[in-house]
Design goal:
heterotrimer; A mainly alpha; B mainly alpha; C alpha/beta; C: Rossmann fold; Rossmann fold; 14 helices; 17% strand
């Protein structure tokens, strides 16, 4: 079954790769390619974060570090050293993996308060990288870096096709990796670490090695995605690249989507990004962000375990949600509310709302208030 | 030499302001296990109210404390009530407060626009004044901040160590169920603490409003710095937060003179990394550990 | 006494009277006929602006200016006889979003024309999209001139193609014109994009900027300090400035930097004899009272009484319209100065291009503008020089705070009052 699902994923990705050709033929707006690129970007980033933080429970604040490292590696190697852009992408990924491994080596060894320290360490690393970008003129130095479109083989299509395909490739890679990990012994080990690390150790899970692998993969994918993003952004500045958007949004997307499964971040990324887009361009103007924040609050309150869990555990509600999605999409399409992507967004919102209504499925399954560091729950000492 | 000294003094005092800003965050994080990003929105909101009150009525900016403190206290209690009611865990509390943060910042933007707002010099008797000891200046707004920080931290320390309330709070932080068995109502104490933390944010906001111009984006600029202060000081450690703030201010200023102000953030954050590796509980230890 | 025919004698005054009446009627008719009401399908202009985020405080000024312009043009006959509609989206100060939104405006919404966003990173991001689709991109606030390589982008920030050279030149000329020119100069630079560029020139080039040219002009550079965009401790910077004992402090700074710096210096009991700042938020600086008296800055235009009177009724009306739009957008500072001027001028360039080309064809508009340049209400005649990335000759005005107001003090041809020199 696993092979079947994997094959389906790859087939889907391959099919998607030809959408730009369809666009050329039918002439639908290239905007949809750019929109899709952003979906791929957030899928990649959230999945990358989730491989570490969702699967192992080691919550990371540092996705911005990997992302920023990827963006600037590609940007600097391209503009300062004249290295071929396509070569910079894997280099960026590799550097991301190395940085991640370094952080892991330091954090995972010092065991006392594992969970929280790790999160704070990743945050500190992000700040430090940002400060370095501000200071070093090779990296940036403040004036910013302009990224012109590099020469590339023409079969990849026009610019919008190019970033679409690159984004698709990285997203596919991330999702496939997450899928494979989840269905492997390695993944089982990670889940064991998340649920009860001490017990996992006793059971013979090589926790240190597994955690190192998880974080390295996460860093690699995050930076890979960042390198592709450099091309889309067009003009890099330290404040623009190292702000809080990426680290916070990937957490939101993964939590909303569900952290226990590779589909979770995908769902979360699609829903949150579509929601954001819908609100920015809805004409709500100044109230868009208010609505967005309010929805986020509602989701956290009513579906803290994530949408995917809900879909899985309440199949009837899942069907209802799917129906709501289709109906709302078609309805807004007929009513002419905005453009096609807006109809889909409206559908997603409706579907999500149906899923959210009502009490969370299973209370008490890990919903007790636990601190960030999983280890603390283990030692219940009497005061 | 004089420059280092003056810069150091400035650094220490602005560090006091960092400390005041960090107190509330440290309190809720350490004791209630809630990472409250909205804390920064409360500070900013209080600063805006200070601006508006002074600008509209001409009253002394410090008077705003009387208005914002109870207001923010209520907000803090309300938010905590929601967190308790829905059994929100630590990670989710971060996201929840992030949602609230977004809403608050946008509301500020809608009310006051994205433009800069600053109390006019004529109505702000504190902004440019300083106390002089010899040649060294102690600017008044920062002096107020430092004083506030020390007083609150000392009071907080005393309360946490010596009063029933403080002990109950620490018991909840350590293990809520067992504390409950001893008759401690974590809900009410939690709300009271959250309210106090928000009140602290309000005071920080008034000090900010006196010291500088405000704009919606400002809250985001604080996040990195104040998180660093909280972490370095030891999460939940109030005196530690103030000490860490002062330390960061001092180090920044000296680096700024000896090397370049551009280099100060790199040094501070590198120190943070080192501190996390070698003193994971913060330089001054966490609360109760 | 010759008696002329009564008729003839009576007719002449009557004729004169009739002609006069006719003239009056004609004038009256001309005045009371409103400008032709634009009709037909609206021409849609698309753009993004940073209405929230890091650039929000200034982005909103451009929103007000744009709204005032669109209202103006619709009240004065429209564009090619058609009403103009402005579709502006919030890019949240994020270049990635800028690119995506311009893609949407152009390929999805199929807007007829586009206008540039605010701030260089966003303009460069928009430029890439505009170039791909062949749209003319007028823009108002790009100072990083070396990054603007698209032949059909038209900038209106009038520091010229090399502000790192033209701005120091202007300032030093002013300084040297004083009775006692300063000798010791301290530089305090914000290392963010445009301010960095003016202090030090483009990266990887030997052109240099204000710091180097100060030395070449014979000043002694007693301090060369760099600070990151988000500084919270101004005290240590102020302490260093005070210790350097400059005659003149040059702050390549942005927004609130000069306010914070001046306040920090005042707290130390120190006021430098002269202080210049590049791109301040003008309102807060004025609100500092005595602390900021005499501060110098650069501008494209200031609506000072004399200057405005010279420019005529149209300019005065525009200034008033902008104040209304600014108030509607909740702005605290509603004066039509640099940012608003650049914005208005960019819109004028767009409209001139369309009218000159007589159509909405992007290529024709671009060709027309490149060949003819355009007249503008506030910054004179613009000629787009392709060798200098379409920048015109530099036109840097220097303004100074006197009596709590910004007044243009340089160049002599355009000033409304003389420079207040330090005592």
């Amino acid at each position: 079954m696993r092979h079947g699902r994997l094959a389906a994923l790859l087939a889907l990705a391959a099919a998607l790769a030809f959408v730009p050709n369809v666009q050329d033929a039918t002439g639908f707006p290239t905007f949809y390619l750019v929109y899709s690129y952003f979906l791929f970007f957030w899928i990649a980033q959230s999945t990358s974060w989730n491989i570490l933080s969702g699967y192992t429970g080691y919550f990371s604040f540092g996705q911005g570090a990997f992302y920023g490292l990827g963006v600037y590696t590609a940007g600097d190697l391209l503009t300062r050293e004249g290295i071929n852009y396509f070569v910079t992408i894997p280099i960026a990924g590799a550097l991301g993996g190395v940085l991640a491994a370094a952080v892991g080596a330091l954090a995972f060894r010092l065991g006392s308060l594992r969970g929280e320290i790790f999160a704070l360490l990743t945050l500190a690393v992000t700040f430090t990288l940002s400060a370095i970008a501000q200071l070093s003129t090779w990296v940036d130095g403040g004036q910013g870096i302009s990224i012109a479109v590099p020469p590339y083989p023409s079969f990849l299509g026009e610019y919008q096709d190019l970033i679409y395909r690159l984004g698709l490739a990285v997203a596919t890679l991330s999702v496939v990796v997450a899928f494979l990990i989840q269905n492997s012994r390695f993944g089982w080990g990670l889940f064991a670490i998340r649920d009860e690390e001490d017990v996992a150790e006793e059971l013979g899970v090589p926790t240190f090695r597994y955690k190192m692998l998880a974080i390295s993969v996460s860093g690699f994918l995050g930076s890979l995605s960042g390198a592709v993003a450099a091309l889309q952004i067009g003009y890099l500045t330290p404040e623009g690249v190292f702000n809080l958007t990426v680290p916070l949004l990937v957490v939101v997307m993964s939590v909303l989507g569900g952290r226990r499964h590779w589909l979770g971040p995908v769902i979360g990324a699609v829903v949150i990004y579509s929601l954001q887009e819908r609100l920015t361009n809805s004409g709500l103007g100044d109230w868009g962000q208010v609505v967005l924040g309010s929805i986020l609050v509602l989701i956290i309150l009513f579906a803290p375990e994530g949408l995917h869990e809900r879909l899985r555990r309440q199949p009837r509600r899942a069907v209802a949600s799917g129906v709501a999605l289709v109906v709302a999409t078609v309805a807004s399409g007929l009513a002419g509310w905005g453009i096609a992507s807006d109809w889909l967004s409206t559908g997603l919102i409706a579907g999500t709302a149906v899923l959210l209504v009502g009490r969370p499925a299973a209370r008490g399954s890990g919903k007790r208030r636990r601190p960030l560091d999983a280890s603390h729950a283990g030692d219940a000492a009497v005061p | 030499m004089n420059t280092y000294l003056q810069a150091g003094v400035s650094g220490v005092m602005i560090g006091g302001l960092y400390g005041v800003m960090a107190l509330g965050l440290s309190l809720t994080w350490g004791l209630l296990k809630v990472i409250n990003l909205a804390h920064f929105a409360l500070i900013l909101g209080s600063a805006y109210v200070t601006y508006q009150l002074t600008t509209s009525t001409g009253v002394d900016p410090l008077v705003s404390v009387l208005v914002v403190t109870p207001g923010m206290f209520a907000v803090g209690v309300a938010v905590h009530w929601v967190i308790e009611r829905f059994h929100v865990d630590e990670l989710s509390s971060l996201l929840l407060s992030f949602g609230l943060f977004i809403v608050a910042i946008q509301l500020i933007n809608n009310i006051w626009s994205a433009d800069f707002r600053q109390i006019e010099a004529a109505e702000n008797p504190y902004a440019t004044r300083a106390v002089f000891i010899g040649d060294i200046a102690f600017p008044v707004p920062q002096l107020m901040a430092l004083g506030t920080a020390l007083v609150f931290a000392a009071v907080g320390f005393y309360v946490l160590r010596r009063t029933y309330f403080g002990k109950a709070l620490r018991a909840i932080a350590y293990d809520r169920e067992i504390a409950g068995a001893y008759g401690v109502d974590h809900r009410r104490i939690g709300m009271l603490t959250a309210g106090l933390a928000s009140a602290l944010a309000a005071v920080a906001g008034v000090l900010i409003g006196i010291n500088q111009a405000v704009f919606p984006q400002l809250a985001l600029e604080w996040v990195g710095l104040i998180f660093t202060v909280v972490i370095l000081g030891g999460i939940g450690n109030l005196l530690g937060a103030v000490a860490a703030g002062i330390l960061i201010g001092l180090v920044s200023s000296q680096v700024g003179v000896a090397w370049t102000p551009l280099g100060a953030p790199v040094v501070v954050f590198s120190l943070l990394i080192l501190a996390l590796l070698f003193r994971p509980n913060g330089l001054f230890g966490r609360l109760g550990e | 006494m010759q008696r002329q025919s009564l008729k003839r004698r009576d007719r002449r005054p009557a004729v004169v009277l009739a002609v006069l009446l006719g003239l009056v009627a004609a004038i009256g008719a001309a005045q009371s006929t409103p400008a032709a009401v634009p009709r037909g399908d609206p021409i849609v202009v698309g753009s993004t602006l940073s209405l929230t985020g890091a650039f929000g405080a200034t982005g909103v000024i451009h929103k007000a200016a744009g709204e005032a312009f669109v209202q103006w043009i619709n009240e004065t006959g429209g564009l090619l006889g058609r009403p103009v509609e402005w579709k502006v989206l919030n890019d949240e100060s994020d270049p990635a979003k800028v690119a995506a939104l311009y893609e949407r405006l152009i390929s999805q919404d199929r807007v007829d024309l586009i206008m540039g966003p605010y701030a260089t990173p966003n303009i460069v991001a928009a430029q890439a999209v505009a170039q791909r689709h062949g749209y003319v991109l007028p823009n108002h606030t790009a100072v990083l001139t070396y990054a603007l390589t698209y032949p059909c982008q038209f900038p209106t920030w009038s520091a010229g193609g090399k502000p790192n050279l033209s701005v120091p030149q202007t300032v030093f000329r002013l300084l040297k014109s004083q009775k006692t020119p300063p000798k010791r100069v301290a530089f305090v630079t914000n290392t963010g994009g445009s301010t960095n560029f003016i202090s030090y020139g483009p990266p990887g080039s030997s052109e240099g900027g204000a710091v180097e040219w100060a030395r070449k002009a014979g000043f002694e550079v007693v301090l060369d300090l760099k600070y990151p965009p988000a500084v919270s401790d101004w005290g240590s910077i102020a302490a260093q400035v005070r210790a350097a004992e400059p005659d003149f402090v040059w702050n390549s700074g942005l927004a609130l930097d000069p306010v914070n710096l001046l306040q920090a210096m005042q707290q130390l009991g120190y006021r430098p004899p002269q202080f210049l700042t590049l791109f301040p938020a003008p309102g807060p600086l004025l609100g500092m009272g005595d602390t900021s008296n005499g501060v110098l800055s650069l501008t494209l235009f200031e609506p000072n009484g004399k200057l405005l009177k010279r420019m005529g009724k149209k300019a005065q009306e525009i200034v008033a319209e902008f104040a209304k739009a600014a108030a509607a957008n909740g702005l605290a500072y509603r004066v039509f100065d640099s940012q608003a001027t650049a914005s208005w001028t960019a819109w004028e360039v767009l409209v001139a291009g369309v009218r000159g080309a007589g159509s909405l064809d992007q290529e024709k508009i671009c060709d027309y503008l490149l060949e003819n340049g355009t007249d503008t209400t506030f910054v004179g005649k613009l000629r787009f020089n392709p060798a200098l990335h379409n920048f015109s000759r530099p036109r840097n005005l220097v303004k100074q705070i006197q009596d709590r107001r910004w007044k243009v003090v340089w160049p002599p041809a355009l000033r409304v009052t003389t420079l207040q020199e330090p005592d």
